[in-house]
């Protein structure tokens, strides 16, 4: 049987998701916003990467209450532990504008992925865009692969994990 002659289509964000992305990006420090936009542009400009998935921001600024909800996950609520920071201790709690954002990928089938491989590829683009950006996947202990932050903005508590 012959393969379809229709070219593969990249995954797309819905109108609501696009609006939410703009809102979240508006919560980021200008240098983090610029690094994300540059990395996203390079990603979408690559004919192979854009077919794999579309990066999108899952969280940027978060309230202390939201941080405490995430802290409870894997402890007093079901799910995996996703943070070691309580409300007020995370870089996500600074601002807005905030020096931290989290990324996932919308895949062609519409699902969401936090693939370490995709995130590591995106991390290279983020770090290339601005040398002040650090990736949680590079941390020696708790690997927070969706997490990107700008150096020089210290959260309370002195630990980098968000």
Automatic annotation (TrEMBL):
One of its GO terms (molecular function) is peptidase activity. SUPFAM superfamilies: Hedgehog/DD-peptidase. Gene3D superfamilies: 3.30.1380.10. Residues 88-150 form the Peptidase M15C domain. InterPro entries: Peptidase_M15C (IPR039561), Zn_M74/Hedgehog-like (IPR009045). This is M15 family metallopeptidase. The lineage of its organism: Bacteria, Pseudomonadati, Bacteroidota, Cytophagia, Cytophagales.
